[in-house]
Amino acid sequence: MPVSSPARLGESPFDDLLPVTAQAMMDRFDHPLSSQSWVMNDPGRRDRCYAVLLLSGRAQIALRQGVIECKAPALVWLPLGETQRFTVNAGGEGYLLSVADDLVARHCGDGGMAGGSPAGGGLPLRLAADTVHNVIPAENSENLSHLRRSFEAIRAELMQNALGASLVVGAHLQIILTMVLRLAESVMEQRDKHRPGSITFQRFLQVLELHFREHWNVADYATALGVSERRLGSAVLRATGKPPLTVIHERVLREACMRLEQSPLGVAQIAYGLGFRDPAYFSRFFKRYMGEAPGGYRRLRRAAERVRDDTFAAWP
């Protein structure tokens, strides 16, 4: 399977396909007299991830399933397709960053830095970016100071939109996600302890989250884990009843389905974002497993969503 989008091969760090102001937006709320709300599930925002830094007050974040209640100080990271609405209570202070998932992938994926070296010095930043996090930086701590400076720096770059603004924004995204990992480290360790399956299987899932867009084969995963293909196959089969290749393909398909449902990008752009060089090959791959072409899948899901919206149209 193909490794990466041709649009990303050999690009200069200053060659932004889109201006950074089209890929990111920063809202600063500073002790409003009444509550303020932002709606995130409209079509124009479906390709966005969100980061909230709450410095004072309280806020609520409505997700696809459930609500996060925030009390300052708080840092919340919200991946693509999760967020419905953000509301900050009167008197709150902080930042709301919205950023295109493609920009996150470009700067926080495995080839995110100029020259192709791993973003984040080997930290699993892309894994962090694909997960909801609600973490608490201690008041007056160095971590909170780092976060405040990074949010303010992104805000300034977006206002100036100078040469290399995307690169600077990407660097501060790496800092924000590094802070997420640092503050969530104990939470993630507890989560991993309760996952089903062997340690090999758990590690496979972690590495899969980092590399499924690169279309690694089973041998690549076995090499990264330091085990034989046979041992990896046995661990995955015991935990899931499926061979590793099926689990790998299912992860690509889950991401494809979510993007087709949530993102306004065209099918070809989604294919490139998932590491396919040829959109036609992506369509054949998707149809082989899902029984319908990506465009048909999107139309059916969007139609079902409109029916649900009409059902609740009379709600206040």
From TrEMBL:
Keywords: DNA-binding, Transcription, Transcription regulation. This is AraC family transcriptional regulator. It comes from Thalassospira profundimaris. Residues 202-300 form the HTH araC/xylS-type domain. SMART domains: HTH_ARAC. It comes from the Bacteria. GO terms for molecular function: DNA-binding transcription factor activity; sequence-specific DNA binding. It holds the Pfam family HTH_18. PANTHER family: ARAC-FAMILY TRANSCRIPTIONAL REGULATOR (PTHR43280), TRANSCRIPTIONAL REGULATORY PROTEIN (PTHR43280:SF32).
